[in-house]
Automatic annotation (TrEMBL):
Belongs to the sulfatase family. GO terms for molecular function: arylsulfatase activity. Its cofactor is Ca(2+). It comes from the Eukaryota. InterPro entries: Alkaline_phosphatase_core_sf, Sulfatase, Sulfatase_N. Pfam families: Sulfatase, Sulfatase_C. SUPFAM superfamilies: Alkaline phosphatase-like. This is Arylsulfatase A. It comes from Channa argus. Residues 6-60 form the Sulfatase N-terminal domain.
Length: 213
């Protein structure tokens, strides 16, 4: 929203609040003198990968639950390849009704739904502001992020057999992921409880009636 004053996603499409690359893709810096050598990588990683990575480096056991993260040690320490091949994209208000909005498989990204957002209102692209209403795409819009990181030109899925095979792979990955996806209860939708508000005068009495801010 701050445009050139810190809100410019450069060539990436749209901005925060959307599932386009401008709303999701971010750079990262890893710093560990003597262990991580200076350099640049374009391997795919996620904040979801931090837990399994630190657990591996620390020799700690992972919790016995299904995790979406993978170990990034090979990227960070050995300048190798990422174990991550897929990335799932949900909107800011995910729901079981729609499920995944987009899915990345290798260099390809498929959009099953697209929607603009208020935080992208200053972007001139008409797909980005809040008035860009929710749209379903069947077949999904598929982009080659290596040659088209701006997501300007979706691939002609219905015209090429190789893209049909790619689409089937993407659908299979999506189906397998969503079969294990469990939505948690929304904490925000529970509303507010005045008894849980912080007390601005913690030494007062009687509580909570004296806790006026």
């Amino acid at each position: 929203m701050r445009m050139s004053r810190g809100g410019n996603a450069g060539p990436l499409k749209c901005g925060k609040g959307t599932t386009y690359e401008g709303g999701m893709r971010e750079p990262a810096i890893a710093y560990w003198p003597g262990t991580i050598r200076p350099g640049v990588t374009h391997e795919m990683a996620s904040t979801l990968d931090i837990l399994p990575t630190i657990a591996n480096l620390a020799g700690a056991k992972l919790p016995q639950v299904m995790l979406d993260g993978v170990d990034m040690t090979e990227i960070l320490v050995h300048q190798g390849k990422s174990k991550r091949e897929t990335m799932m994209f949900y909107p800011i208000n995910p729901s079981e009704m729609y499920g995944l909005f987009a899915l990345r498989l290798g260099k390809y990204k498929a959009h099953f739904f697209t929607q603009g957002a208020a935080h992208s209102a200053t972007t001139p692209d008409q797909d980005c502001p809040a008035f860009a209403v929710l749209k379903a795409h069947d077949p999904p819009l598929i982009f080659d992020l290596e040659s088209d990181p701006s997501e300007n030109y979706h691939l002609p899925v219905n015209e090429r057999p190789d893209l049909q095979a790619l689409l089937e792979r993407i659908k299979k990955v999506k189906e397998q992921f969503e079969a294990t996806m469990v939505f948690g209860e929304s904490q925000i939708s529970k509303g507010t409880d005045p008894n849980l508000a912080p007390c601005c005068n913690p030494q007062c009495s009687p509580k909570p009636s004296c806790c006026h801010c």
